[in-house]
Structures are given as C-alpha cells and as structure tokens.
Amino acid sequence: MFYRENGQFKTSYRADQQILPIAQDRWAMLVLLVAAFALVPAVASDYMFRAILIPFLIFSLAAVGVNILVGYCGQISLGSGAFMAVGAYAAYNFHVRVDGMPLLLALVLGGVCAMLFGMLFGLPSLRVKGLYLAVATLAAQFFADWMFLRVQWFTNNSSSGSVSVSNLQVFGYSLEGPGAKYFFCLGLLALVALLAKNLVRGAVGREWMAIRDMDVAAAVIGIRPMYAKLSAFAVSSFIVGIAGALWAFIYLGAWEPAAFSVDQSFRLLFMVIIGGMGSIMGSFFGAAFIVVLPIALSQFLRFFATVSGLEISTAVASHAELMVFGGLIVWFLIVEPHGLAKLWSVGKQKLRLWPFPH
Amino acid sequence: MKLHTLARTAAVVVALASAIATPSAYAQAKEQFFPLLSYRTGPYAPNGVPWANGKQDYLKMINARDGGINGVKLTYEECETGYATDRGVECYERLKSKPGVALFDPQATGITFALTEKVVNDKIPLVTLGYGLSVAQDGLAFKWNFPLMGSYWTGADILIQHLGKKEGGLDKLKGKKIALVYHDSPFGKEPIPLLQERSRQLGFDLQLTPVTAPGVEQKAAWLQVRQNKPDYVLLWGWGVMNSTALKEAQATGYPRDKMFGVWWAGAEPDVKDVGEGAKGYSALALNTSGTQPKVIQDILKYVHDKGQGTGPKDEVGSVLYTRGVIIQVLGVEAVRRAQERFGKGKVMTGEQVRWGLENLALDQKKLDSLGLAGVMRPISTSCSDHMGSSWARVHSWDGSKWSFSSDWYQADEQIIKPMVKAGADKYLGDKKMNRREPADCQS
C-alpha cells in the first residue's frame, strides 16, 4: 500500500538508472542519512559511540571491501586480515615517519599500499579458483603476520612490536572525542559506500559479476579476466586497507599484529556470507551481525540475569554468548542462505503487496 | 520465507538492540566501583581464572569483614575479554563510565597497550602489576600507568642475576648460551631489550626463539633449542604455552632444572598437568602461595565458608590467586590512602585514586596488619617511581608444590633506570608530549 512505485514514471534514462529509482527508497535513504548524521550523535552515549557504533562503521567499511572481491567478483579471499594489517601499518609508517603528514593522506596512502599488496597476492587468482584461491590468499595472511612480527622497521623499531598513535587531527580538528571519531568514520564510510555502489553498477562491476557467474563465458564475450580480477583485488584491498587503518588508529589506538590475525579474515568473510554476497547493503547487515550481536548478547545475558535474579557467572555468560551466537548464525543461514540482504529484499517484496497478497 | 518469520526476526533484532540501549541498574549509594577485566574462556583461561577469582574474593572479603573502606562499599563487575584486545577495549568502554570507578587492571599486555592511550583522556589509573609496559615505571612520563612490583625488565634482570649466582658470579656467564623461548607478542618481546643489554655487558650469547601465540604448537621452537643446546632456557609464556613448553622440553630431553620462567610462567596450572615431568623447573615469584597467610585465612573465613566464594575452595591461595589478591590489596590500599587525603568515607575519583597509588607506602608493619606477612615485600611508590619495589624470588616445582629456591633479588637499577628513561623519552618524543612538572605531583 505504502511501498509501491505505481505512478512514478521515468522520462529519462538518467532517472531510470539512478541508484534508488523508487521515491520511497530515496526518502528512506534520506531519513537514514539524517538519522546517522544528526539523530544518532544527539542521543548516543560515550559507550555507544566508542564500543558499538565506531567498530560497526569500520567493519562495515571493511565488509564493503571484501564484498566487492568475494560477493561481486567471486574470488574467495582469506587474506582480508592481512590487507587490513598492511593498511594499518603502512598508514602508521607514513604518519610517524613523514613529518606533518595529514592523517587523511596517511590513511589513503595506507590504502594504496594495501592495494598493491592485494594485487600481488591476487595474482594466483588468475590460475586458481574457488577454495584453492582461498588457500592461496591465506598465504597473504601468514606472510603479513610474519612480516609485522619480524621486520622491526615496520613497527618503527618498537621493542615490544606494539605501536601506537595519539593526538590525531583532521584539518585542525582533534579526533579524540567520540563524536569526532564517529563523524570521521561515518563520512569515510558514506563516501566509500557510494563509490562502491556506483562501481558495481557500472561497467567494471558488470565485468566482475560476469567473471563471478562464469569466467569462461565472460572471457568469450570479451572481458579480460586478468584485468577484471586484479581490479577487484585492487579496489577491495584498497577499501579494506583503509578500514584496517581506521581500526588501528581510531578504535584501538595501540595495536600489535594479533589485532589483524586470521580470525579477522574469517570474521570478514562471515560478514559477507551472512550479510549477503554481492550486496553493498548486505555488508552493513553482516557487520552489524558479527560486530554488534555478540556485544548485545553479552549485555542481554547480564540484563536477563539481573531481571530474573539468576546468578550467572562470567564464564557461563561468555560460553552462552558463543553458543547463542553460533546458533543464530546457523538459524539465519537456514532460513535464508543468501544472507540478510536477501531477507531485506524479500521483506520489500512483501511490502509491495501488503495488505493484499495474492 | 513467510512474513511472520520475518516479523519474528525483526522482533529478535529489536529485543537485542534494546538490550544494548538499556543502562544496567546500579545503586547510586556510597560505592567504590572496581571494574574487573578477566578471561575465563580461551587458551589463557587456566591462568586467568585463579587471578580473577583472587581479585574478586578480596573485594568480597573487605565488604564482609570491614564493611568496605571506611564505610564505602566496594562493588565490582566482571567483563570477559578472552585476552583479545578489541574485546578488552569494549569492556573498558563499558565499565569506565560507571560511577565511582577506581582503577583498571586489564590482565593482558596487549589490552594494556591499547588502554594506555585511552586512560590519559578518561583520567583512570591503570594498574599492571608485574606486566604491561616496562617503561611505564617512569611516573613522570606515564602519569596513569602503574606497573607495581615489577616489569618484564626487572623480571628478566633478576633471572640473569639468578643464573649468575648459580654459575658463581655474573662474569661466569661470559660465553654461555641463554635461549629466550617467548610468546610472540608484545608480552614476550618486552624483555628482549634488557636481555640484549645484559648480553652485551656480560658477554653471554642470547638466542631468541619465538613461539607463535597461543603456543600450543612449539615443535619448531624446541627443535631449535635441541640444535643450539643452550646452557639455560628462559621461558616467557602465558596460558597453555607454559605447560606445552614443559612437555616439549620433556620430549626433547632438555633438563628442566636449566629452565627458568617469568612470574607468569610459574603457577600451578603451568606445571600440574606435567607433574613429575616439570620437576626441577624454576620460575620467578612475586608472592608466596598457600593458605597460611592471614589474608587468605580471612578470605576463607568471611567469603568461602559463607558459600560466597568465586571459584573452587581448593584453589584459594594458589600462586595466581594470591597475586590477584595482592593486586586488589594494593588497589584497595590506594583508595584508602586517597581517602586519608581527600576525605575519609568518600567515594574517590580516578584522579584521587591515582594520587593514592602514587603515594602508597606499605612498610612491613602495615603488611603484617593487612595479613600479608611474608607474602610480599614492602612497597613504596612515588611520583617518579610507579613501581615501588623491584624485588622477586625464584621458586621451584618439586613435582607436587612450589617452594622457594633463592633469596630475594633486586633488579639492578644501574641498568634499568637509564633504559626506562631513554624508553620513556622516546615515547614522549614520538607523541610530542612533555614530562610532568614537579608541581603536577602534588595533585
């Protein structure tokens, strides 16, 4: 009843090809943006900002990057943690070694380094596919772990191997407060998500999807597999690298290579699978699921314990959190194997017919 | 998928979202809040659990026996970090805004590094007894960090002194081969600069053998040990890494009485599974174990006998449990000290507790009255020295219990002081920060 495009006629190709062709969607997006930029900062607490919203934004960004590679181009990668690490450490080195280096430029250069690293480790994708590629990209993970643990130069000769940044500034504004960090991450995320959405709608994105759906057929119709695959690796690891730098600079503040372990690669892959492969929006759902849900669960269990008067020990609570979380993953994948983004589109479909389904 | 399933999904999501948004219920009474970061799951749980139990039981005991600190009740809340830095940061953010937060003891070196950058803005002291950032001993550079009773540098130095004593003089270490088998993380790497300094000075050959975290797979490291045949092995492990290392040493045939662990590799969970195989293995000790000390007796009497104990009763008084108790004793005494200056019976702010930590003076008489006679040495901190005491002993495992095998050693100030100064200067330089003014010490 409310969500119908009847009567919305398009008179130009431009209008027909915009990101959100339906007026209700455009309004919803506008409301969402206003909420994210104005409403949330007005009501969120310090804890909400620092522990939930900022990690969510950063991992959404990373998930968008991984989704381009895994979801759109079909190249399964377990090296995302390594790309994050390269982004973080490269940005760190630019930040501390070059005097007066602006933070934003350091982040972008970190992304560029991650991009080069990603393309290097994307080379095997020209020969191997599927699970074999996943194993090949795992090499990137272990290589990065080794490199940042062993090569002292990357950690600015820090004796413990841990590096830290502080007093971050962007255009003269301090990035210490939670609100400033939130706006910084949100701004970057909005920008990158818009770029990514347009990339996947354009010629490059169609090449990626053609490669994903059937690489031989794609090659036959004139798509260069090397160009398509490597460009997917490049764009993806650039975004993931920036996300890694944000994770290190904005969220952790001080970090060690373990912050970008293989666990992080798996988490990112799960975000994409649970959120929805080949969907920018799914990346957000996936990040919310993997980042926010465990925290919400642990808070909920504590809340439940206080309300019900049951004594739940920390160990039991954290085990229960893991079990419920695992159960939810299985449940979501059973009810909708195509991810939360598919749930969303099913929901939209239902809304169009509501309240008179045929 | 049906619409009602979709609706149910949405309901679940909304319920969880509201759970985040709901602030937990707490009383606003006169209560000093102790946030307890702990890990009761994961590869470090065997060591993290007794530590966390000790910290919690002491708070319960103070409430039951004394009714708090001068009438101020002690409250606490545990948060599971799993030893992971990102979860640790989340826990910190979750607990730091509770009213009456006294201090944080993150129980992990990685989390300490991340929180060191954050406590400065939040003005909450960070107590890292025997771990954390070695250069943070310099209180003029690290206003909020308190590596009380020892750092990895003092620990490493004491181990070298002990080896020297065994050989009959530090000069006898010349030409010896000493291998450091370490957890490949900031925790394991921290002692390296000091050991390198000592090896330059004394002329022993330092062999670095990293073990990938968490340390369940160490075959490669012990193959290296077997090839190099070091005279001594220093074990810098935590959690499952320690017991695995001892089993590997047994399999390799490396004599256990040539192995010396840091104080984080010298507790019951590390050797119990290995039993006889760990016989002769020694490690540093910051504190005693056993149930004889009065403070442990009080915990048994006021907490465990009332059925309020946090963990199993037979683990009370174990090495790490006692360390947890000591950490909490120092925290509670810091609050008491702060109350003496800022008002008895009041809830102290983080800044006031920091002053208390900086002006701790627990002499032998005070320790005796706290029930800590023989458990630890007197400790006295100051504005410039956030460690307070750099003494430790060595204890050995005889197959069934730990017993002391050396007298007290003090870390060599001549070596550590310049290193701490240089390290702190480098840290401040990187951050473009300055040392605290002397006037700042009064606040």
Can you tell me about this structure?
The complex is a heterodimer of chains A (358) and B (443). Chain A has 358 residues and is an all-alpha fold. Chain A has 14 helices and four strands. Helices cover 72% and strands 2% of the residues of chain A. In chain A, helix 3 (46-72) runs parallel beside helix 7 and helix 7 packs across helix 8 (203-213). By secondary structure, chain B is of the alpha/beta class. Chain B folds into two domains: 31-150 and 290-380 and 421-442, 3-Layer(aba) Sandwich (Rossmann fold), CATH 3.40.50.2300; 152-285 and 394-411, Rossmann fold. In chain B, the strands form four sheets. In chain B, strands 5, 6, 7, 8, 9, 12, 13 and 14 form an eight-stranded mixed sheet that branches. Chain B has a two-stranded parallel sheet with strand order 1-2. Chain B is globular. Chain B has helices at 3-21, 45-66, 85-95, 109-122, 152-167, 186-189, 192-202, 219-228, 240-252, 268-271, 294-304, 319-342, 350-358, 364-369, 413-431, and strands spanning 31-38, 73-80, 126-127, 145-146, 177-183, 205-211, 232-236, 259-261, 282-285, 361-362, 379-380, 391-397, 402-404, 409-410. In chain B, helix 8 crosses helix 9 (240-252) and helix 12 crosses helix 13. The chains are: A mainly alpha (358), B alpha/beta (443). At the A-B interface, helix 3, strand 4, helix 12, helix 13 and helix 14 of A face helix 1, helix 2, strand 2, helix 3 and helix 4 of B.
